[in-house]
Structures are given as structure tokens and as C-alpha cells.
Amino acid sequence: MNQALQIIWRRAIHLVPVALAATFVSFLLVNLQQGNTALAVLGTSATPESIHQFDLKYGLNHSLLYRYFSWLWQALHGHLGYSYQTQQSVASEIVQRFPVTLELICLGIFLAVITAVPASILAARRPMKAADWMGRGVAMVGFSMPGFVLGPLLLLVFAVKLKIVPSVGFVPITQNLWQNLRIMILPGVALGFAFFATYSRILRGDMVDQLYGEEYVLTARSKGLSEWRVLIRHVFKNSLFSFITVLGTNVGVLIGGAVVTETVFNLAGMGGLLNSSVQQKDSPVVQGLVGVICLSVVVANLLTDIAYLLLDPRVRYGSAH
Amino acid sequence: MNQVRTPEIEVPSHLLPDAEASGGERLIEVRDLHVTFRQKAGDVHAVRGVSFELTRGKTFVLVGESGSGKSVTARSILGLVPSNSFSSSGSIRFDGEELLGRSEKEWRAIRGRGIGIVFQDPTRSLNPTIRVGAQIAEGVHETLGLSRDDASKRAIELLDLVGIPFAAERAHDYPHQLSGGMRQRVMMAIAISGKPKVLIADEPTTALDVTTQAQIMELLQGLQREFDMGLLLITHDMGLAFSYGDEIGVMYAGRIVERAAAQTLRRRVRMPYTRGLLDSVPRITDTPHSVFPALSGRPPDASHLPAGCPFAPRCRYAQDRCREAEPPLAGDEPGQEYACWFPL
Amino acid sequence: MALPTEAVPLRRFGALLDGRARSIRLKGNLAMMIPLGILLLMVLACFFGPALFHLPAYQDGNLANANLGLGQQGHLLGTDPLGNDLLSRSLVGGRVSIEVGLGATLAGVLIGSNLGMLAGYFGGALDTALMRLIDVQLAFPALILALIIAEYLGPSEFHEGIALTVLSVPNYARLSRAGTLRIREREFVVATRIMGARRRHITLRHIYPNIVPSLITIFPITVSVVMLVEATLSFLGAGIRPPAPSWGNMVYAGTQYLETAPINVIVPGAFLFVTVCCLNLVGEQVRARFGR
User: What is this structure's pTM?
Assistant: First the structure.
């Protein structure tokens, strides 16, 4: 166990500078834009006086490095600056929008998992038969279908033509669970579809590898266990390891997908905010969001490592007596 | 190479097979078994007409180099050939019932119940993420229908039987927490948990160090005696074959090329391949730095077997007839058969 | 002086490639040939179709013809909200996706594989620096990084290309680094003993042939990913902007008319889907045959 904690500690130490470096890189990128920021935001009719005020307010008269470190220092205290556009506190905007994105991502993962697990178990049970080919076909569609095409198509079929779910009108989950789910189900499917493809492919591949390559499968069969029991109790259980790793490392892709999904479905989440703030060159917001997002990705990776270490008995219980 | 005497083991009666259920003397009869794997590169004839019998209380040893088909033969008896595209023909009878051609459901009836099997590498044969006690209890729960509690208790009893100290605590360990020898004992506990009449041991000691090898073989013999089982031992080690075998079958390129009782074989070897195998076992009586007569060459590729006797390319005594036609397994004396045109 | 039997110095680049290419052709692989054929057709259609078949213009359309349905008034796939022919607009729009998709990936291959090779060969500080940079880049979700780069440089095809090249580099860098490390272990030792001072030259000639197969293995899939990201960028407004067509921005324009004229979403969406799907299918086959 000690060994495991050491590994986790070393990973954490490794990842923190990476997250910091990521915020620095984004700071650089955000300042790539040519021309005067104040001018771009205030418009061509701005007076020199107002430009000067703007610069003072946002500290734009200082050097890049100074601005980065002052941003970092403020950020560590929870102050992420103020939006150029709305003058609102960036931190409060992010906090407002965070739950929506969180719900979307969780819903996407949930839908992907509850469909991928049975599909891949069925596929592994009878490889190269109907269930397997169907699953792989659907997965291929999932890999190839862009989210911004799937979203509108789902809207067209289910909201417009069939009128099963509303197309607008977000209701927070705390207010009315049912209405909230009705609105969130289509975005959840749109986001989760590609991940169904990834998860089912990984799971199926891992299970088939075990069924044909591992000796303990033979032992399990020699005990007289049914094929289903062998598959679920021995093989699937072991596949969970690579599955959890995939879940964790794909968090970044999920967040990226959320940007598209929120834009398509007009959801007031962090992704939609990122898109609009990047377009408006609202740098404090962009920088703040990127900081939060990179941190989340890094934390997710760390949590995945921890989960892996906790679950693998070989690490938890050390070696032979 | 003397017969090894093993110490006594005390086996509680509820772990043994029922007295009434004890069948006849001949537990396993294999007749003309053929197993062919269909592959794109060409068919692989892994087993080409193997026949032998396993009797209650006796040990039959299948000896041969890797690739001779001995493992495939052993696994065929339980229908555990790990491939989708293979065909088999011939007959395997267990207690008078035909085994070949069974459906999965029918196979499950004997696996773990009438016939138990121990594999070569206990590190890979045990699931690394399930506790050893649970892996034993699982088998007993399924095949004997014991409740989960009873199955767990039985698992501890079995661990104790195979000589694992502090069985109750060890049952909660994971495989990697045990040494190689202990893991193999766990495998054996699994194999005998279903009160089998036949035990198949596929190279049970190959992955272990020498001292552990002896302990495991002792345990195996002791269990065989107490359970009055027929033991099918697969090995490439001639020394092991002579120490523990009652009858020995030497396999080469998918066939048995010499078969005799151990004592008979000890007196006289007829097939040059067997002679070569025997000669390559170092003896303690050899003088230091004496020349080591190892068999040259390698076993033939099972997908491209040459015409004639498959051993001919490596045989010191090979003649033209050997390269033309494959010699049948036959004998001029009762109790010893060999497949050679010009036996020694 | 006998050469050790293991290392084979001076493997010809062509010979190595030929062996594998032959194994693909011999199998007569329909699963790869059909999507590959469709892809070729798509490329030809996008670049030469409108001219070859004298299709209606793809821009400056007549508003009076807006949102026509399939097959109406000589427009095979209808028209968009501004009256432009959807078929020709989609074909022209495809040019961008193909150019950027291929171009950015190839640039990523060139830059990434060389970086990875240098890092793997020289090791030390260079290697550590490259690995850290890749780690930092991977802390960014790919789409978000590309979005920021493309938008802040100014939305255009070229800037999209830069953003997507940056995205492609890590995969190829890591792959070629790993391959280089493997070769370095093997050939280096032999070459050092035999060839003496020429070892660097020889080792470099050994490294390329051994890396290329693994790079080819992931090539189609990375192109498809880059195409998807490019289309997403255009959809979000960070890439090609109207009136210049691209599959992404056409879908975006189409979402405004989703209820009344869904073909605006379906047509460009279908083009994109088919292209990406074929790339993925080819990629799967390539991986199965080429991969070890």
C-alpha cells in the first residue's frame, strides 16, 4: 500500500507543473492576437481616454510575464478576473455554468457505458456473429459521425418530427428532474454516441484477447463453469482495468465534445461559454475556462491512476510471502 | 531411477468420491484420436491416431518434446482445445461414455466432476484478481451445488489437504501473494475439488524449481493414492516418467511411437527416439566432462510432415524404407509396442 | 570476419515497404479497396466535379431559389438558404476538408516523426523536453487547443492548418520516438563494432525504414480525426467562414433552417460522414495488415 501511495504522490508531483505549464501556454496563445485588445473590444470609435482606462483596469500596460504571474496568483486565490464583454466575474460565470456541463458529461458517460457494456459482452460471447458485427457497425458510425451533425439530426427526428422531447427550454435539475432529463437526453446521446464506439471497441477487444490468450480462462472452463460465468466473472472483471483507464484518459475528449454539443443544443454550460468567449476574444474568460478545464483533465488522469492502483490486487497487496 | 515412495496423506471421507459411484477399472479409453487444426497456412495435424488406456489407481505418462501433440491430447479429453477451427475424430471414452462430439453443456457435466486437470504454469492459470479461496469455492459451488458458505469452508479444507499451512488465512490471499509451489497446490486443490476419478497433470512441474518439483509430485502421487484416481501425466522429462509412471507412452509428431510398462521399457527400449530421449538425461553416475549425447535437430512442423517416419531425418539408424513409409505401432512381444521398421 | 546473424545492416527502404505492401495486395482486400475507391472518387469529384459536369455555381446564388428540395430546377441535391446549388457547394466545400485534412496531417507527420527521432536518438535533455511538451499539450483537450489557436490567429484555412498540425504532432512524435529507441538498442551495438565512425549515418538509414510502417499504420485514422476537427472548427466559426463553403460551416448555416429545409444539414453532413467513415475503414484494414 505504501508503494501505491508513493506512486500516486510521484504522479501528482509530475502532473501539477504540467497543468501550470498548460495555463501558461494558453496565456501565450490568448495574447497571440495582433492589434490592441482595448481597441478590439471597445470598437473603433473608442477615445484614447477610454482605451487608457481599459488598459489600466485590465493591467494591459504591463509585460506578458508579469500579467501571467499576477493572473496565476489571483487564480490560486479563486479570482479569475473580469470578462471584457460582460464585466462579470469570470469565476462566478464559470461556477454558474459548471453544473450544466457536469450533468451533460455524466449523462453522456452513463449512456455510453450502459450501452457499451452489454453490447461488448454479447459481442465477446459470440465473436464474428450477428451481435458482434452489429456492434462494430454501430461503433464505426459512432467514430465517423461528427457531433454537430448528429445533434441536429437527433433534434430533427425526436424534437421536430416526433415531438417526443422539447427542443428548447432548459430546466435546472434541481427544479424539475423529469423536465430536465427531457431536455438533456438528446444532448446526452449526441455526446455519448462516439464514446459508446470507443468503449465497446476497447471492451470487446480486451475480452476477446483474454478468452483466446489467457490460461485462467482454461482453468475456469475446466471447473465446469458455464461460458457466461467465465465471461462475466473472470474476463469482464479483468477488462474493467483497461476500461477505467480509457474512461479517465478520455475526459479531455469529452470536454471538447461538450463544447460542440452545448453549442448545437444551446445549453448554458462551460463549453458554450468557451466557444462564445473565444469568438469574442474575451480573454479573461477564455483563460479562466482553460485553467479550469486543464485542471479537470489533469485531475481526472490522476484519479484514474489512483483508481487503477486501488483496484489492482497485485499492487494493493504487495508480493509473495 | 527408482520408484518414489510417498508419505501418507489423511483425506477426510467427504472429500473423496462416493464408494458406490466407483465405476469400472478402465477409466479412460482413447482410440485412434485425430485432432487437426484448420488454418489459412495449411492444416496442422496435431494428433494423428493416438490410442491408450488409463486404469484406476495407475499412472499413464505421455512423454515427448514440445510440439509432439501431448498437450492437445490431454486437453481433448476435457474438450478444452483452445481453438474454434479444429476437427477431431476417433473415440475418447470415460467410464464407458463417449466424450467426443459433446456439446458445451454436456462437457460441463464431467469437467471438474469426473475429470480434473492441473496446468503447467500456475502463475498464468490462476486469475490474478480473484482470491484463491474464491477460485476453489467457485468450482465446488457450481459443480457440487454447495451453498456459498459451505463452498468456502470446503475450499479451506482442500487448501489444507494439499499442504498449504494456515489455510484459513491463505484462502483470502491473491495468487501473486503465494509462491510458485503454493500456487500449483492451489491448482491441484481446484482439480480435486470435484471428487474426480481421473486427474490429468499437464507438465505440472515444468514451471517450478527442482525442490518444489519433488514436493508437488509427492503431493500428486499421494492424492492419487487416496482418491484412487487414474493419473494421466504429461511431461517432457524422461526421469519424471520413469519415477512416477506405471505405463509410458512416448509421443512424436502427433503419434505414440513407443508404449510399454515402465519396467519393460527400463529393461529394453525398441524405438531409437526413446533411446535418444533416455540418453539425453544426465546421470549422476556419469563421469565429469563426459560427452552429452543430445538429440540433434528439431521435431517436424506439424503442418508439413515429411513422408515416411517423421523421426527419420534425425535418426541415426534411418534407412530408405524409413523415409518412404510410416511404420505402424505394433509389437512382437506383449506389453510393448513401437513404431519402427528397424527397432533396436 | 563473420557478421552476426541477427542485425541486417543496410536494409533497403523500398524492400521493406514492398514486402508489406505485397501482403496487402495479395489478399485482394475488398474491405479496404471499396472505401479506398470511394475516397478516390470523392477527391476527384470535389476537385474536378463541378467543372467536369458543368454543375450550377456554388456561390452568388439567386435568393429566389432558396431552399429548394431535391432535384428541383436542375439542382440535384437542392439549394441552400442563399439559393446556391447544394451539390456543387458541397463538392467545393470538400476541397477544404481534404486539403487541410491531408496537409495538416502530412505536416504533422514530417515534424512529429523528425522530432521524435531526434529525441529518441539523442536522448537526454532533448528527449525530456519533448516529452514534457507533449504532456503539456495533452493536458489540453484537442478541440479546445485547436479552437483557441485558430480563432486567435484569425479564422482562415491556413490558420486552421497550423492548429491542426500542432494537434497531429504528438502522436507521430511518440511513435517515431518509440521506434527509434527500439532500433537504437539493436543496430547501434552492431554498427558501432563493425562500421566504426560511420555509425550515425548508418543508424539513421536504419531508423527510417523501421519507423515508417508504424507511422503508416496510424495515418488514415489521424487524417480522419483531423478532418473531423477541421469541420468542427468551421462549424463553430473558427475556421473557414462563409461565403467560402466548407462542410462544417454549411451544416451550421443549415441548422437555422432545420425544420423547414433539413437537406442543408443532411447533405454536407453526409459528405463528411462518408469521407470520414471510409478513412476509418481503410485505417482499420491498414492497421490489421501493417501492424505487428
Answer: 0.83
Q: Rounded to whole angstroms, how far apart are CA atoms A164 and A154? A: 11
Contact (CB, 8 A) for B133 and B193: no
Give all chains having 3 or more CB-to-CB distances under 8 Å with chain B: A
**Which residues in chain C land under pLDDT 50?**
1-24, 26, 197, 292
Chain C residues within 8 A of A22 when measuring between CB atoms: 136, 139-140
DSSP 8-state code for residue B326: P
Weakest mean pLDDT among A307-321, B48-62, B122-136, C77-91: A307-321
Q: What is the pLDDT of residue B248?
A: 92
The 3-class secondary structure across B183-242, one letter per residue, is HHHHHHHHHHCCCCCEEEEECCCCCCCHHHHHHHHHHHHHHHHHHCCEEEEEECCHHHHH
Residues 253-292 of C with CB under 8 A from A: 254-255, 258-259, 262, 265-266, 269, 272-273, 276-277, 280-281
C-alpha B171/C-alpha B158 separation (Å) is: 10
pLDDT at position C144 is: 92
Instruction: Enumerate residues 6+ apart whose C-beta is below 8 A from A45.
Output: none
Q: CB-based contact (8 Å) between A42 and chain C?
A: no
pLDDT, tens only, A79-123: 778 777 777 888 888 888 999 999 999 999 999 999 999 999 999
Question: Which class for B286: exposed (0-12), middle (13-18), buried (19 or more C-beta within 10 A)?
Answer: exposed
Cell of A273: 461559454
Give CA separation, A316 vs A2, B54, B166, B177, C280, in Å. 9, 45, 21, 11, 40
Q: List Cα–Cα distances, A303 to A6, A99, A100, C254, in angstroms.
A: 15, 20, 22, 41
Cβ neighbours of C262 in A, within 8 Å: 152, 156
